[in-house]
Amino acid sequence: MSYEIVARPHQENFIAWSKDKPQVVVLSADLTNSCEVGVWRDTYPDRFFSMGMAEQNMLGVAAGMAREGLEPWLHTFSVFLYRRPLDQLQMSIAYPALPVRLVGFLPGIMTPGGVTHQAIEDIAILRAVPNMTVLEVGDATEVESVIDVAHAIDGPVYIRQLRGEVSRIFPREEPMILNRARRLSTGDDVSLLTSGIMTEEALRALPLITERGVSVDHLHISTLKPFSDPQVVQSVSSAKSAVITMENHSIVGGLGSAVAEVMAENGVGTPLQRIGIKDTYAHGASQKYLMAELGLDARALVTAVEKALGKRLEISDEELSEARVIDVHSTAKAEAL
Amino acid sequence: MVTKAAVPRGKDNDAMGQIGSTIDIPRIHEIAAGIRRRVLDHTLNNNGGYMSQACSSAELLGCLYGGVAKLPALEAPLLPQPFPGTPAPGGTNRTTGAAFHGKQSPEHDRLIVSPAHYALVVYAALIETGRLGEDALADFNKDGSTVEMIGAEHSPGFETTTGSLSQALSQSIGIALARRTRGDTGKTWVFMSDGEFQEGQTWEALQAANHYSLDSLRIIVDVNQAQCDGPMDSVMSIEPLAEKIAAFGWDVHKLDGHDVEGIIAASEAEGAKPRALLCYTDPVRGLPIMQERAPVLHYLRFKSEDERARYQEAYKEMVK
Q1: pLDDT for B269-297, tens place per residue?
Q2: Are residues A149 and A216 both part of a single domain?
Q3: Which of A15, A66, B76, B315 could form a disulfide with A98 if both were Cys (CB 3.0 to 4.6 A apart)?
């Protein structure tokens, strides 16, 4: 399976989108080019606010601007939006339900920057914050359309954003829709719910799995909160053998937990397997290495399906090896981080 | 720059919301006396209150509400509303206690209260200046009321939720930047406490205000040198505060926080930088018997009926 690769899908799209929206301002904390808003800054210098490495203040400034009718779009790495300034996020932005857009880059294990740069529990924390909307993109089409989804919400929004070289999996004319999953295949043996980059990873293994006679109902999830799409209940209720979730995040508090809550509340007793980071920190290494080490890759999905069905599917490593691996030193990124 | 000498005062102001009037200094002293009196009365009736904050900040708040902050006048005092529910996306319950500061306009100042623990004192100041109903303190800390013990953005006089201290200055920078963007001429004032200078966020904010040359931003700080655990220099020293803030690029005025004329002069002095009025205050000013409780002055709760009776006597002196 190969997809069109789009270089820096956010960069030009966000510039064009902002043109007729004078209330849109960008705040950045010394990661401007790394978050693909360097050209935006040069295009709209009066609407760009460099806040330096001072995220607690940046979130407060954004809150004040939002109170005055501006629409601040904060761009930095995810960890610097919710870990260090969580009190500011909650008391200055989330409690008053202000329309501040927190655009977080490097979700999960996307970076060799190590534990300090890897947002592995952001969804868990921000799902627990009242008034938040939590979105995660899975491809270039969603990178482009998530800004419309966020813009329409009169409240705080956190986006797990992708950058650099991003596959286009979903057609351009099918933008992200709030709280609506994309059904990528139908079946009744296994209900599979994937989010973010894990959707593409799952799509590597799924043709091999279905070839072996396993039918999979596959939903791509891009809205983690709210989490009330009726397609989710319908999918997990109809699976005969297993429900499997797959996320670039801790298995605690993210997609897997959200699905478990839906299953419990609806009396769905099918076994649930959560593929994700198993309550551990990661470290500095390549995405491919970490996905294999932490059990986040296509092989992990094959193993989960085999466990659910109680049989071997006989899928070789060679068949799975058509992985698309992004070069750490891609020219589509500002630095190797 | 640190300025210590008082500057002659002059300019007109709109103490009563009418541009062109003069700041009425005797009136500010009346407001300050009224703040102390109301907070002591409340403390006596409820066996507890943030009394030392009233003693230290009475003249600061008297100045701010008496004309230093150019707030639009209200036609009549507003009554506190019941708690409407927590805010939610879509503008639900996005009420603000800023209504007690009058209808916002590009020309008028804004006043953001940072240390929410001063709420009782702020409410007293609002009552004294005809912005909040006379009986509002009866709702203080009552279930379902917005006259909360630790004020939040639905409480009279508050427009941010800053019980977690030091978050108002950053938000005020955002407000001031947005106001500058749309061409407002009014200033944005932030009332702060000195304890907030122990928080790192305050210094991030000072740094940003300087970077953006936010000359419309003014902070006025109650430097009472006391905090919950006791004297600040025993908890965590912040001095030399004026020199530190000046080194961050601000115009700093180091003042006696009970010298009304000095506060007015510093507020009206010329300057093109963000400005800090550091008002050194006495946490027992106007209520000297509280000195017996030093150094722990954060909250006044009577230890005996005898002690309460002596404060009752002090109250009688105040209302004479």
Answers
A1: 999 999 999 999 999 999 999 999 988 88
A2: no
A3: A66
